[in-house]
Design goal:
This is Isochorismatase family protein. Pfam families: Isochorismatase. This protein has a single domain, classed as Isochorismatase-like (Rossmann fold). The radius of gyration is 15 Å and the shape is globular. The chain has 177 residues and is of the alpha/beta class. Helix 4 links the parallel strand 4 and strand 5. Helix 1 packs antiparallel against helix 7, helix 4 packs parallel to helix 5 and helix 6 runs antiparallel to helix 7.
Length: 177
Amino acid sequence: MPLIDPTRTLLLVIDLQIRLMPAIAASADVLANTGRLTAAARLLDVPVLVTEQNAGGLGTTVPELAPEPGRAFPKMSFGAARAPGFLDRLPRGRDLVVTGCEAHICVLQTVVGLLEAGCRVYVVGDAVGSRRAENREAALGRMAAHGAEIVTTEMVVFEWLGTARHPRFREVVKLIK
């Protein structure tokens, strides 16, 4: 089992949208951990891709995680891998670190589609959410059974760093503490 290499990783943030987040159990934790990951990704030059499910109905990505205008990938299918052009947006050979909502719908269907496409997928368990905790837990179990690795925010960040001698170590560790 390889460690998560920042030079081969893309952070995929799925559907953390304005009208959806108030209904998500422990949404503050999901948003905080995704925020830590996106900040670490910026510091470590890991590309980030954000999706938005039916933005007309669910709103755009929450402001604190919103990409530059026009940079979110719009979709109507629950699984992003089914959306026209999505797989083309993924750089070849990149592993995917996945956060987002809802774990048992859009995250699950996206992860299964990515696995079917031959991608290595790491789902950040403390950065995915659903309206109900039992749906989140069932989704994590199912994704793992299909071959996704379930990890935590800190696992990802420290694997991206690799060493306490990393030139950005102090900046990145501040995101965790």
